[in-house]
């Protein structure tokens, strides 16, 4: 690491030598690959596999920047990879924008970009282009990232809400709410620590396993707003009723405890390494087996019915309650 | 416009109804196209023309957000389009990230996105995916944008600094420094106004005209750091001497006056609608004609020689001075 400063200064954004050092020694040294060339205005992408080119983009402003199980760097890779994965695509390339606050510790930035690089390597994606801006002290809250991802989906794969039918089954690939609960505790506003870890991870393996199964209709990752929000989006888009079984939804013991203590509903807390899938009835068993091969906590959690469009939770005691659409975000800045 | 509020609130970023209205009524209503679907996590791109896929990304934090000749919305389109254009590609699609400060006037945002949409239409590019984040008051300085662009370059086109040879000629597609000078005046720190307009525009026509000419070696848009910075990058990358003719470099009268008055050198001020090109000696005349067809101010401004790598300005009186690499940015936040 040739950067001699310990903190980011405005000179790291001025287009001169400091900026070149920041980009080459901190970013490119960690993220480097055969496509990334910091002397060029644009990256030339080697030929992609046959299929439909799929693109997505997301901004990341999580606070705190580091939390048990990840940081804003790994999250910015997983978040964008997962949006591609649930669309049925295999992610190949990312671009990165960084807005960095003057005064940010360079050692912190190194940890963020290390985690980003590791997450990208683990998922075999390359960061092929980037841009950094340094903002005056007081702006940008440390770091904001934006990542744009490119992937390829088979021409033959047709997924989406319009394919969902009454009778279809709903699955989740693991416990829900872990990321939201971990970030909540990491804020230390409540004066206690826990052993909660974010589930931030790629869902590509789970998504690809499901894509092999005829009868897969739709996938989505339950990030901001959690499982309850994905369920409400499904009800609104399909005009069907989403019926969930409370006792089937996997929630880890520590997440359940923290939520009870602090008054949060884990069904509205973000996951960052899970997917929700809708499959035809006859494909449900095969889909569950496929998901359990990637995570033993995967569960069949509900179905869609011809009743009026809303989300109904069937409780363990045989009762029913409606899971309303979120009006107020219970936990801002979680991604 | 169905948005009932007049200013952005944190609720516009919370994932609920307000956010859906912001995205659908403000962004999608203006930027909408057949690919953009705000209900999906990722956009499927219709088949692209044959060639090399080229990708670039850039962040925009200009202050003020609006200036004569453009705003941060049009700039965010032109900046990314131009990075693709000077790489020899035709831009096709953009993605957009917006980081918006709580309290920002919605009418201002509408003007920014209107200008963005107009710039995209003018260049026949579509915004196919986006993400918005609302940041607490005091952060993000109104608005930051990041745009990622992708386009296609012919397989047969090989451009870049490694192709540059001693004897090659240097051209510029129009007057330099207009954007930097216009933003400078728009800041009103100097207590006077002028009739300067930013040159913010697409350089695609000029770039495509040059791409037809055998002997084209390299193009770049002289944004932050201006013409002098592009010249220094060329000297450093090629280990050649860049010789520029002072009396050949087109600078508008108002830009020259403002720079003399305020002590700026227009050669270090950004253009946002110009390109610098290097061509083989024998292609220089044809390249100049091609550029003049797009802008009568286009000029042949210098050449590369086998002397030691630096940038030498030959003055009108026959003298020489070295144009040094920028250490301090004379004018931050211009793009």
Tell me the number of strands of chain A: 14
SS element count, helices of chain A: 8
Q: If you compute it from the alpha carbons, what radius of gyration of chain A comes out, rounded to the nearest whole angstrom? A: 21 Å
Considering DSSP H and I runs of 4 or more, what fraction of the residues of chain A is helical?
25-40%
The name of the CATH topology of the largest domain in chain A is Phosphoribosyl-aminoimidazole Synthetase, Chain A, domain 2
For the record, what is the CATH homologous superfamily label of the largest domain in chain A? PurM-like C-terminal domain
Distance between the termini of chain A: 29 Å
Q: Largest interface, with Cβ-Cβ < 8 Å?
A: A-B, 68 and 67 residues
What assembly state would you assign to the polypeptide chains in this entry?
homodimer
Global morphology of chain A: globular
What structural class do the secondary elements of chain A suggest?
A: alpha+beta
Uncertain regions of chain A: pLDDT < 50 for 5+ in a row?
A: none
The largest pleated sheet of chain A is described as:
7 strands, mixed
Beta-strand content bin of chain A: 15-25%
Q: What number of structural domains do the residues of chain A give?
A: 2
Spatial ordering of strands, largest sheet of chain A:
9-11-8-12-10-13-14
CATH class of the largest domain in chain A: Alpha Beta
The CATH architecture of the largest domain in chain A would be Alpha-Beta Complex
N-to-C order of helices and strands of chain A? HEEEEHEHEEEHHEHEHEHEEE
Key features of this structure:
homodimer, 335 residues, alpha+beta, 2 domains, seven-stranded mixed β-sheet, four-stranded mixed β-sheet, 8 helices, 14 strands
């Amino acid at each position: 690491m040739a950067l001699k400063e310990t903190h980011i200064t405005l000179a790291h954004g001025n287009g001169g030598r400091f900026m070149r050092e920041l980009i080459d020694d901190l970013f490119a040294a960690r993220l480097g690959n055969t496509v990334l060339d910091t002397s060029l205005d644009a990256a030339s992408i080697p030929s992609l596999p046959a299929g439909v080119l799929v693109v997505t983009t997301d901004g990341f402003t999580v606070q705190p920047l580091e939390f048990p199980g990840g940081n804003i760097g790994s999250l910015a890779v997983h978040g964008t990879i997962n949006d591609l994965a649930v669309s049925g695509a295999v992610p190949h390339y990312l671009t990165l924008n960084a807005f960095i606050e003057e005064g940010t510790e360079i050692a912190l930035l190194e940890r963020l970009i290390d985690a980003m690089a590791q997450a990208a390597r683990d998922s075999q994606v390359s960061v092929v282009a980037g841009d950094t801006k340094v903002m005056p002290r007081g702006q940008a809250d440390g770091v904001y990232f934006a990542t744009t991802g490119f992937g390829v989906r088979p021409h033959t794969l047709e997924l989406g809400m319009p394919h969902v039918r009454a009778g279809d089954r709903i699955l989740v690939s693991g416990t829900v709410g872990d990321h939201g609960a971990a970030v909540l505790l990491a804020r230390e506003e409540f004066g206690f620590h826990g052993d909660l870890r974010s589930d931030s991870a790629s869902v590509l393996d789970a998504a690809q396993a499901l894509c092999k199964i005829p009868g897969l209709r739709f996938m989505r990752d339950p990030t901001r707003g959690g499982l309850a929000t994905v369920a409400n989006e499904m009800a609104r888009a399909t005009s069907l009723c989403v019926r969930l079984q409370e006792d089937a939804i996997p929630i880890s013991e520590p997440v359940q405890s923290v939520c009870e203590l602090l008054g949060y509903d884990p069904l509205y807390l973000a996951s960052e390494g899970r997917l929700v899938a809708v499959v035809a009835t006859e494909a449900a068993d095969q889909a569950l087996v496929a998901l359990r091969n990637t995570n033993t906590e995967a569960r069949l959690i509900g179905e869609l019915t011809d009743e009026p469009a809303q989300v109904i939770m069937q409780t363990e005691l045989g009762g029913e309650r409606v899971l309303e659409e979120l009006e107020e975000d219970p936990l801002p800045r979680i991604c």
